[in-house]
Amino acid sequence: GVLLERFGYPVWTGETQWKERLFISAKAEQSLRLSIEARGAEVPGRTFVPLLARPPRTYYDTVIVGTLPANARPGDRVFVGRAYVGRLIERNNRSAKALLAWAAGEQTDLFIHGAELAVLARGEGNGTFRVEIPRSIPVETGNLVTLAGDPDAFVGEVAAIVAAESDPFASVLIQSPVNLQHLQWLSLESSPR
Fold this sequence. Notes:
This protein is mainly beta. Helices cover about 10% and strands about 50% of the residues.
C-alpha cells in the first residue's frame, strides 16, 4: 500500500488504487473532505453510523445505514459532517433505511442566506432541489442554503437561477456538495422525543 496525505489526514491505500485516488473529481474530493471531517469531529447529539449500501444497490435516493444507537427512530436526521442529507424512514434491529432530502418529490424547509428567504424546496434527485420564487427576490448563484430554523445544518448552495423574461417567477436550483459514492460514514441526529 501507499500512505498519502489528503486534507492533512493520512490515508492508506492499496498499491493498485493510489493513482485512482489521487485523481478523483473535485466533487468527490469535497465529499471525501466532508467524510473525514465528519469522522474526525464529534458533534454533540450525533452518532456515527456506517454507510452500508447506496444507489445503485438501493432504491434511488435511499441509503442503508448500520450500527444504530438504541434510540434511533424514523424521522431522525442524517448528516455528512455539517451537511444535512436526509432522514431515517425505516428501522430494523441491525440497520435502517434513510431517504435522501433531494429525493424526487421530497419536500424540505430551507433557508437561503443572502436573500434571507425561507422556502419549501422540492427534491429533484441527484443532489438537487428546486424552489419557485418571485423574480423580484434578490437570490444569487453561490448563496448558502441551510435547513430553515437550523443555520448549522448546511444543505448546499444556489447553483442556478432559471427564469424567462416574461415569467414572474424564477426556478432556483440548489445543489448539495455531497456525493455519497465516496463516503463510508454518516452521522445520525436523534429527534427530540
